[in-house]
Amino acid sequence: MLKAQLKIRIEWSHCDPAKIIFNPHYYIWMDNCSHALLRIAGLDGSEHLNDPDFKACPLVTSTAQFYQPAMLGDELLLTSSVARFGNTSFEISHHFSRANTLVCSGTEVRVWGGSDQDGKLIAVRVPDWIRDNLSATGTHDVSP
How far apart are alpha carbons 116 and 125 in whole angstroms? Predict the structure, then answer.
C-alpha cells in the first residue's frame, strides 16, 4: 500500500505543563497525514471541489491507542496507509514511532462523498482510480 510519512518534532506548544504531548495533537497529525496521502494518490482537494462525482471525504471514526508518552524534544515518525477498503469507505492506519518504538497507533475511517440529485451529501462507492492509487507501492515523505 501507498504510505505517507511525516516527521514530527515535539515542540513546547505540543505539550502540557509536564512536558508530555497533549494527546489531541495526534489526531491533528493523523488528519494531516491522511490528506497528504490522498494528495499523493491524486486527490487534490482544491482541484476536485468542482468534480460532480466528489463532494467530500468526511471522517466518520477516529481512534488512538497510546503506548508510551512522547515528550518535549522527541522526534516521531508518523506512517500512514490504507488498511482496508469497504464499498463506500476506507480505513487509514497510523503508526507513530520514536527510534523504531511504537508510541501511538490510530485509525481513521473515511467515507467517499458524492451527492444525490438534490445536492445532498451521500456516501458513494470509492472510485477504482483512488483504490488503485492508494494500493500502489511506495513511501513518500510529506514532512514540511
Answer: 13
- Residue 122 gets the label, from left (phi > 0), alpha (psi -120 to 50) or beta, of beta
CA dist 43 to 20, 26, 119, Å? Answer: 35, 23, 21
Place of cell 488503485: 132
Question: Where in the sequence is the domain holding 127, given as residue range(s)?
Answer: 2-137
Q: Is the pLDDT of residue 48 over 70?
A: no
CATH code at position 121: 3.10.129.10
The whole-model pTM stands at 0.92
Look at the block and give the residue holding cell 463532494.
55
Domain count along the chain? 1
Provide the b/e sequence for 104-122 (b: ≥16 CB within 10 Å). bbbbbbbbbbbeeeeeeee
In contact, 82 and 92? CB cutoff 8 Å: yes
